[in-house]
Amino acid sequence: MGRHADPEILKLIHDLKVKGESWGFIASDEFKISDGVYWVDLVWRYRESQSLFITFEFEKEENERLLKNLDKIFDTPSIEIEKPYHHFLIVFNGALSEGMKKIVTEKARRYNIHTFEDFRNVAEQNRLNEELERLRIGLPELITRIGKTDAANAIHDVLRGLRDVVPVLKIEGQPFPIGQSIVTSTPISISQTSLSTSPVGAFDSTKYEGFALIPIPREQFVITVPNTAISLGVVLMHKQQSDREIRLSFIGIELPCKMNFVLLKDRGGGGFDIRLDPDLADVVQLKKYEDLLREYDKHKSLLVKNMEGKGVMGADGISLSRPLSSDDWYRAVSDLAYIQEKTSQRIPCPKNLRIAPNDLTTINRIKIIMEKAEETLPIASLTMTMIKEQFEKLIEIQQKSDKIPRLSIDHEQYSLDLLGVEVPLGPVTWQLPDMIFREPLEEVIKRIRDIESTVLVQMTMTPVSSNETQIIFHKWKE
């Protein structure tokens, strides 16, 4: 089967596949992802249309392929490969080296990656079984009754972040899986006009001074703005000469940009322009490009150095032919770059170089979440699908206290959609205000009286007075 030939690995894959199926999952070995470009050793899903939910990769020992198998899942854009709810990395022989362990640990800081080393050790085998048991959370019953279609398909509609994962409701500290949960909220909006910028910042001038030599094509250089931290690696791709002028074309190394120089031989002048390709750039690269334009606009000086640090061309006094983008645009781009760097989730340049008001709201919200690790939102109602005996527990609490206090919802995978990209924000806990059933308690009791204790029921609750719920983002409290 596939790339594995070791009998112990094959047996473990088979045993885990059987275990997943016995728990109601759709278990598939050698599972294709990204249209067959990559394969995953074993995947547990709870519906056919789902790609990844719980994934397993097995290695006989530490090797280069171990990192490649992690990268194909976690370093590929989410739009191409969805991130699993939990990923299990199992190494049979020996422990990971210190360098390898640092890389894996860093990825595990952002995703639910469970690593098992020297798996022939019985203690590691027992730990795997214990961790898998904790993931059962009643899924088989939900899957069987709902037909593997909507067991956890839409939670927290207002935040669009808790998708394809079964949340857990805590009643007086006791966890209960929820089949479906929808929180409704009052709209959140800000007053903000759309931001836009042109795709090109072009330089244009008849004044160009002081080039010491013309380098040969394919040589590498660094473009700097003197007395600043700006540094852009480039490669000279083309050189054309005529009786009157010399044309040089560079491409960026760390930025998808092109820079062209025109040097007039007779007058000793010329001009240049720089263009960023927004279809290839991400927001960190866009921010570096904006920084280059702003620093140049401030200093009106540019220097091209070879790799030995010697200046080979320089320009002074050339003004930008177009105004800089607005301060609002620059702040938004800076915030996007900050989010990408903190989450390690690549965010492409905004489509058509426009940032809509709803995306500005999300940018600001993610920044606040990262800084404060929590937020407070109003809710109008909470609709849940649970079995009868779980609702009986809630009814008992409301009968005693005229309310249901201290409810919370835990979720281990949370993300927000930003510019069409799912930005991972880690596990969250919703701490709900005091709630009551929306219907009179007598009607609730009547609705569930004659049904079996294991039958799924949908009910809606509303806040008693305060409608504010606090959301704790555990990853950002670290």
Characterization of the model:
The protein is α+β, with helices and mostly antiparallel strands. The chain folds into 3 domains: 7-136, Trna Endonuclease, Chain: A, domain 1, CATH 3.40.1350.10; 168-190 and 370-477; 196-328, no CATH class. The protein is 28% helix and 31% strand. The protein contains 10 helices and 27 strands. The protein has helices spanning 7-22, 64-74, 98-110, 122-134, 139-146, 283-299, 327-343, 357-372, 388-401, 441-448; strands at residues 26-33, 38-45, 54-59, 86-91, 113-116, 168-171, 174-177, 180-184, 195-196, 200-201, 220-224, 231-241, 245-252, 257-264, 270-276, 301-306, 311-316, 354-355, 374-378, 381-387, 408-411, 415-418, 421-424, 428-431, 435-437, 456-463, 468-473. The strands form 6 sheets. The chain has an 8-stranded antiparallel sheet, with helices on one face. It has a 6-stranded antiparallel sheet with strand order 7-6-21-24-27-19. The protein has a 5-stranded mixed sheet with strand order 1-2-3-4-5, sandwiched between helices. The radius of gyration is 29 Å and the shape is flat. The two termini are 42 Å apart.
